[in-house]
Amino acid sequence: MSLIVQKYGGSSVADAESIKRVAKRIVETRKAGNEVVVAVSAMGDSTDELLDLAHQVTPIPAPRELDMLLTAGERISMALLAMAIKSMGHDARSFTGSQAGMITDARHGQARIVDVTPGRVRDALDEGAIAIVAGFQGFNRGTGDITTLGRGGSDTTAVALAAALHADICEIYTDVDGIFTADPRVVPKARKIERITSEEMLELAANGAKVLYIRAVEYARRHGVTLHVRSSFNNNEGTIVYNATDEQNRERPVEEPLIAGVATDLSEAKITVVGVPDIPGKAAQIFNIVAKTGANIDMIVQNVSAAATGLTDISFTLPKSDGQTVLTTLTAEQTDVGFASLQYDDQIGKLALVGAGMRTNAGVSAKLFTALYEAGINIEMISTSEIRISVVTRADTVNDALRVVHTAFGLDADSDAVVHGGSGR
Ligand code: ASP
Ligand code: MG
């Protein structure tokens, strides 16, 4: 008997009909002789609707109360799903995050899982029931309060349950057929990836691919959980995300594709610190100030200093949501650091090309830059890792950039990808 964890996103349980359809799928998995644990998201866009509601009441909702509110979304879908399964003659039991033992730290809205004690889930399985767990929510022992794991956190719930219960596989059901070489909503000729390493998937997720959340991929990688990302709208095989260092995967011929996929991200902004004295310690000073804000810095570029002035410019990218705080904090330290001014640019787009095969291939950046040049797209920043090359362009050219790069690397499929609707979650 296998233990299968299945996660259904909001678009898969958007209304009563969808819930019945998903219930049928779950029952089929159970009837095939598997133990089944389900992590479920809130119906459709209901998390966003609850957030809107909170902001209609107050511009700055209290974090504890916001978590109370948002976790109601998953409580609705889990109960409806359990009812639907029961009405089909199978035993099912729903559990909130705290009942399922998702123990987190106390950070409301962004809690991290510190322990998983799924005793009640295990008991339900032992009694032959299907366990339905509310995604995205946890519980802090110190405060005794309900927490949430950050947007898209149901993926993390599923992976954490799979790890704690030693599941054979963790299936992530969504509204596309798997992970694609690019977002099929932007690149219709995007190709479904059959297998991808968790290392590559992490880079794609960190660079804007929304099909899986980065924290879920990190958790899966750390705990050796194999993921199967697939559509809840058909029975097609999806994409396997595996740990290339796992014993069971080591024997497989790991033929690393040159490029796994291309991701884009429009959520970042660029700050340029203009006229920084080109002497040791200035970068340290600037980024220590930035670090205090907790902002996640992504790309950093420092120009060669103009010899005549002894000054240099330092640019970096960061989430737009952190932009204002970082600007304010840096401005407060302007005289101390001694820079001339700050520039803020929120009209940037980032494109990242990811592939484990890059490690051993020299021509990748040349090909990327040539494709962008031929499309008349200007590159503003470049950064690389062993398995990734990222460039920053103007925001309004990034989708064109995505399409030409996808074609240039021979990733286009023969036919268009099927998107079943929804927002990609
Ligand atoms: N419902 C939550 C959200 O929309 C969690 C999830 O969907 O995974 O962010
Ligand atoms: Mg959702």
From TrEMBL:
Keyword Transferase part of the UniProt annotation: yes
Broad enzyme group: transferase
Alphabetized PROSITE patterns for the sequence: ACT, ASPARTOKINASE
Residues binding ATP: K7, Y8, G9, G10, T174, D175, R185, K210, V211
Biological function: Catalyzes the phosphorylation of the beta-carboxyl group of aspartic acid with ATP to yield 4-phospho-L-aspartate, which is involved in the branched biosynthetic pathway leading to the biosynthesis of amino acids lysine, threonine, isoleucine and methionine.
Family: Belongs to the aspartokinase family.
Name by which UniProt lists this protein: Aspartokinase
